[in-house]
Amino acid sequence: MNIRDAAFRKFLIVWSGQLFSAIGSGLTAFALGVFVFQKTQSAMDYSLIILFNFLPSFLMLPFTGVLADRFDRKKMMILGDAGSIAGILFILFIMMSGNVDLWHIYLGVALSSVSAAIQIPAYKAAVSDLVSEEQYSQASGLIQLAGSAQYLISPMIAGFLVSYFDIKLVLILDIMTFVIAVAAVLVITKREAAPRQQDNRNFFRDLTDSFRYLLSRKGILWLVVLTSMVCFYIGLLQSLFGPMVLALADSRTLGIALSLSATGMLVSSLLIGVFGLKQSKVFILSLFLALAGLFYALMGLFPAVAMIIVFGFLFFVTLPFVNTSLEVLIRTNVDNENQGRVWSMVYAISQVGFILAFGSAGFLSDHVFNPLLLPDGALSQTVGQLIGTGQGRGIGLLFVLSGLFVSLLGLMIGRVKKIKALESDAAGEARATGVSG
Questions:
Q1: How many domains is the chain partitioned into structurally?
Q2: Mutual orientation of helices 167-187 and 2-40 as an angle, nearest 10°?
Q3: By residue range, what is the domain housing residue 49?
Q4: How many CB atoms lie within 10 A of CB 134?
Q5: 418 assigned to some structural domain
Q6: At the top level of its lineage, which domain of life is listed (predicted)?
Q7: In a domain, 430, yes or no
Q8: pLDDT tens digit string along 322-367?
Q9: Are residues 183 and 216 in the same domain?
Q10: Number of H helices and number of E strands within the chain?
Q11: Could you point out which of 94, 179, 200, 435 has its C-alpha 20 to 30 Å from the C-alpha of 284?
């Protein structure tokens, strides 16, 4: 028991550093998005920041996941955070020169994304090193809490900072949070839960084996493919929430709206972190994904910031339950020595949905949905009578349709037999381990 407690304390140290890092990343993401949108008034330019933040990670994660199983995960986390500092420094130096263009921002964000691809699978795999299986749901809940900080805390702070200070201050603060994350990893003592005996194996063979491993787990593969479809619609929301609110209000209001909405994520993350999840993970995943879709649709229905905040809050309440259920189902069905590479494959496949969303969201908004709901648009006298007309209302219609599809996918996940079998398989393995121990 004492060993488990000591290991969990080490996890908490690393987690604390990642919490500060998430807050800093949220500051930069918000500030750069507002900076670009105010400069160009284009949802496409806004969404391209998010695309360049994800695309390099998407391309590199399968490779860095293999590295997380072959090398020291702590050192990989430090390398990833240090690389993220370099990307933000690049943007900062360009802005200080006074000659910043959009491609400078996109390049700096992409450099940080490459570094995140190194850090993410190492961090995910290190959780299995540091905590016992009984603590997986608590650790996952705390990870969701840290991730929610960039939506809960960062937007409100960033909205204030960009209103009264130069954006360069935001970038400096982000760099400082990455330094804290590196220091937190350095504090913990080196600990490997499983020996690394793969250094002399062929790298690409490991990569191929990781894909075969995932294919052999049909339930996990089904889960990841359906999750990728959900991620497409979540990516649309992530790309267009800012432009939709900025069409109704200013950047400070957007920051407040994001922070208040994300309070829901804080509430449910704390509940999961303290109590864990005792019920069927597949049932929880299906139920809360269906609810997420409902609240997603309602966010787009009303052209009022107050209503967007209310349904945004309820939407964010559901996300930690969805994410934690996914994490526990995957983590309990994958051997520890394969955690790094499998997590990288899971991220790579699921993020296909995000990449497609980030690449298409701006076009769908600027050239398809928004024109339909302008005062003289094709749907202004029909759908427009229900959800309103004008700038940003096309995004509202896109949210309504996307939310309905997310609810349908949530109901589908609960009916796939291969996914439902994951829970019984994990329980069987746990009983077998207990007998043999």
A1: 2
A2: 160
A3: 1-188
A4: 10
A5: yes
A6: Bacteria
A7: no
A8: 888 887 787 777 766 666 667 667 777 777 888 888 888 888 888 8
A9: no
A10: 17, 0
A11: 435
